[in-house]
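Milestone 3.1: sequence recovery, worked example.
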């Protein structure tokens, strides 16, 4: 514990029939499931577009620019939606924004069924997928903090990491479903609109979820936070963590009253203050460098592998996604045993080396190139798991939403750039130089993590943010 002061109110588990351990466990399963579902949708909408480009291109008479805009539309939406949703979650609460976010996703997903043909079709499709991205951006900056604030420290890494497994599985499932429906002659509007079904289920499942005790504490609503903790929190370690956050807030309020100042509400400017700039730099830069090469390579797996003389299709698209999912699973199994840093830094150095070899070895055997790409997918996904863990852990409670939202937004600059630019780069500078550029991005991420990546295993959120934010 970092604060010896203890509040007079108790957060002990009630002995009456007010709640039960079974009820609390069901709640945690539900919370994890609805957030995992949102991340599955993220991967799904980004993966579903690849298999149907062959249908969309002739129907809408797309050129490379239009195709790139459609593919990158959700990523740009995430760029806009993540920080705005994070700001709203810190201001208005996790609970209402978590539901509003899925409502937006449901509406945008259903709109895909009604895209018309003709000159305006591309604009419609880009706009719809942009708003889907806005909603998905909210999943990062609302769902991530909400889950971390209910998760016991000894399980927090695994629970947050599970969400990225869902992302990769969603991407892979989308590729499989898209390919099967494409081969069956299904209209492309139906294929990309399949996400509406899960969006509806998740919207219903989110009704009635409670507010985060940590958020209530940042607003001084301690009695409500204690009541929710009594009703929903089973882990003694997590109850201690909530009490610790309450103690810290009371100390901050007392200090502010003594100095006759007011604790500032969350703002983007606070992310770059002397107190929090390292947190912002690390989470944003690390996330950017982790996802940029993957999005570029995985979205256009067929084109990339064909350039190196190895057929894409099921082998490429599913293979890359399957190895990525395996990398995340491996990390999730180890994260709360080995810690965060050892699973973050070495993998980045390795992936930078792999991409460099692919880029400079022009005459490498096709089978070796495939093996290297699969290895890249595995290790890249392993440390990319930490993009769901670190931002939700090291930002303090009053900045957790906006901080994670900003980091997610900044990362999508690179993801959108990679997705949009790779087809152009392959055509104009060649595959080898394109892979060298990707290697440089991975190298920058390795340097940043070597410098700033902290170890947060088993620590409470209050301890982490206090240690990392000065």
């Amino acid at each position: 514990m970092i604060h010896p002061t203890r509040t007079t109110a108790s957060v002990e588990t009630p002995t009456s029939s007010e709640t039960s351990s079974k009820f609390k466990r069901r709640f945690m399963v539900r919370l994890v499931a609805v957030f995992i579902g949102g991340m599955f949708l993220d991967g799904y909408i980004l993966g579903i577009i690849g298999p149907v480009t062959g249908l969309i291109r002739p129907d809408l008479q797309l050129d490379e620019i239009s195709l790139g805009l459609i593919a990158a539309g959700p990523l740009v939406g995430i760029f806009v939606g993540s920080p705005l949703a994070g700001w709203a979650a810190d201001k208005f609460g996790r609970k209402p924004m978590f539901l509003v976010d899925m409502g937006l996703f449901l509406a945008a997903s259903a709109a895909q069924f009604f895209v018309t043909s003709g000159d305006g079709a591309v604009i419609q499709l880009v706009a719809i997928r942009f708003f889907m991205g806005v909603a998905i951006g909210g999943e990062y900056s609302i769902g991530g903090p909400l889950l971390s604030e209910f998760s016991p420290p000894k399980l927090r890494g695994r629970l947050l990491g599970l969400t990225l497994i869902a992302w990769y599985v969603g991407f892979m499932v989308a590729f499989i479903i898209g390919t099967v429906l494409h081969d069956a002659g299904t209209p492309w509007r139906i294929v990309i609109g399949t996400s509406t079904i899960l969006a509806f289920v998740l919207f219903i499942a989110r009704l009635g979820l409670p507010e985060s005790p940590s958020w209530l504490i940042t607003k001084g609503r301690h009695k409500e936070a204690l009541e929710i903790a009594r009703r929903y929190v089973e882990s003694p370690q997590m109850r201690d963590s909530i009490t610790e956050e309450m103690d810290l807030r009371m100390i901050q309020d007392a200090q502010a009253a003594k100095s006759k100042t007011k604790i500032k509400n969350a703002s983007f400017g606070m992310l770059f203050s002397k107190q929090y700039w390292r947190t912002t730099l690390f989470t944003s830069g690390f996330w950017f460098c982790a996802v940029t090469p993957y999005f570029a390579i995985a979205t256009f797996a067929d084109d990339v592998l064909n350039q190196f003389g190895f057929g894409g299709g099921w082998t490429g698209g599913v293979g890359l996604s399957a190895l990525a999912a395996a990398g995340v699973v491996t990390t999730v199994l180890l994260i709360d045993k080995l810690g965060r840093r050892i699973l973050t830094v070495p993998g980045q150095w390795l992936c930078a080396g792999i991409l460099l070899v692919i880029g400079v070895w022009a005459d490498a055997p096709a089978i070796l190139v495939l093996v290297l790409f699969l290895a890249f997918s595995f290790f890249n996904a392993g440390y990319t798991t930490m993009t769901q863990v670190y931002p939700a852990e090291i930002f303090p409670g009053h900045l957790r939403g906006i901080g994670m939202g900003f980091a997610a937004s900044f990362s999508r600059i690179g993801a959108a750039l990679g997705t949009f630019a790779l087809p152009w780069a392959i055509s104009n500078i060649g595959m080898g130089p394109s892979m060298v550029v990707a290697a440089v991005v991975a190298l920058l991420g390795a340097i940043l993590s070597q410098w700033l990546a902290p170890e947060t295993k088993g620590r409470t959120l209050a301890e982490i943010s206090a240690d990392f934010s000065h």
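The chain has one domain: 21-214+267-468. The chain has 20 helices and no strands.
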